[in-house]
Design goal:
The protein is mainly beta. The chain is built from 1 helix and 12 strands; from the N terminus they run αββββββββββββ. The strands form 3 sheets. Strands 2, 6, 7, 8, 10 and 11 form a 6-stranded antiparallel β-sheet that branches. Strands 3-4-5-9 form a 4-stranded antiparallel β-sheet, with no helix packed on it. The protein is elongated.
């Protein structure tokens, strides 16, 4: 009887672990309702200003996808004076509906570089939603940036981190 009870307990623990794993793997919907968005416009030069970045871009049709090509510029006025190096750089482009529900996204990471206000970071994204639908579409950009005093700086000041990204709904 004791062996049978242990087997039942083990099976229950295994079932709970599988359920937890399955719920963690379920596709969660994302929202960019809290981010600044710009209405979808093909082949027209656009500019979207976020808290720390300005994204100058164009949406170009590429088969069944939306290609987004442009330049991102950092607002260095909002950084601490000592932040001279971008240690980590990641951008995400989002295609969303009027309610901010993300229909497609694409992310890119970039090599570390010196902080320069006048020097943009070129980007290209490809967005393929599962279905295009009939509702108006919007573009939003997310980013995650880590700044340090210099390349390979150890010790000293703690890194300065800024981020604007989609949120799980």
């Amino acid at each position: 009887m004791k062996k049978g009870k242990n087997t039942v307990v083990a099976l229950c623990v295994l079932a709970l672990a599988c359920a937890a794993l399955a719920s963690g793997c379920a596709k969660s919907s994302m929202s960019v309702a809290h981010l600044k968005r710009d209405s979808w416009s093909l082949e027209e030069p656009r500019s979207l200003v976020t808290n720390f970045m300005r994204f100058d871009y164009q949406v170009l049709p590429v088969g069944d996808a939306a290609g987004i090509k442009g330049w991102a510029y950092l607002d260095v006025q909002k950084l601490p004076e000592w932040a001279k190096w971008m240690e980590s750089i990641a951008f995400t482009a989002y295609l969303c509906d009027p309610d901010g529900r993300v229909m497609a996204k694409d992310a890119r990471s970039f090599l570390p570089r010196e902080v320069r206000a006048e020097e943009g970071i070129g980007f290209e994204f490809s967005l393929r939603p599962e279905a295009w639908g009939q509702r108006p579409l919007f573009i939003a950009f997310g980013y995650s940036l880590v700044f340090t005093e210099g390349s390979g700086t150890k010790g000293g000041r703690a890194p300065f981190f800024v981020s604007e990204e989609a949120a799980a709904r």
